[in-house]
Amino acid sequence: MQQRYPYQHLWPDTARRPLLGFAAWSGTGKTTLLEAVIPRLRQAGTRVALVKHAHHDFDVDYPGKDSYELRKAGADQVLVTSAERWALIRERPATRDPILAEEIARLEQDSFDLLLVEGFRHERFPKIELLRDPGASASPLFRNDDAIIAVAAPDGLAMDTTLPRLSLDSPGMVARFILEHIMQAQ
């Protein structure tokens, strides 16, 4: 594939749209930051999709709903659909950690401009690392992951890196970085 976007050489083979991950240790604020960044990207006219890695068992359905009961009765796939949205619930045949390239292949990539990824920190693709206190409980990921392209940290937090530094306290700065350094075709 011809390289049209920055960091495209780091994309999984199944990706056809710019993508950027947000990697951090649990509790650092990935979801909180994304909740503030996504509206700013939308305001700029960017159609956003998101893949979120869950490290635990989760369910989008619950006991008592017909779709839940039918899935628990043995349906491997349940498509719930309405005039406003649809959701496909599919059981994995064997329990295993998801692989980002496989999850990206499930998406309708013509319907978005940018794919944001929360989690999958151990996979190689372009990511911003979120840091609260790099000396606290775990070593910063950027020291061992050359696919981390920037670091977002609170203002005033001392860090030893040459990577671009973004303010964790400024979702606008993070959104501008994405628009200028991820979305701009070369």
How would you characterize the overall build of this protein?
The protein is of the alpha/beta class. The chain is 20% helix and 20% strand. It is built from four helices and eight strands, in the order βαβαββαββββα. The longest helix has 14 residues, at 30-43. It is globular and about 55 Å long. It starts with 18 loop residues before the first strand and ends in a 5-residue tail after the last helix.
Helix-strand sequence: EHEHEEHEEEEH
The count of β-strands is 8
Which structural class should the secondary elements be placed in?
Answer: alpha/beta
For the termini, the CA-CA separation is: 14 Å
Q: How is the main sheet built?
A: 6 strands, parallel
What Rg is obtained from the alpha carbons, in whole angstroms?
A: 18 Å
Strand order of the largest sheet: 2-5-1-6-7-8
Q: Proportion of β residues? A: 15-25%
Helix content bin = 10-25%
- Say what oligomer this is: single chain
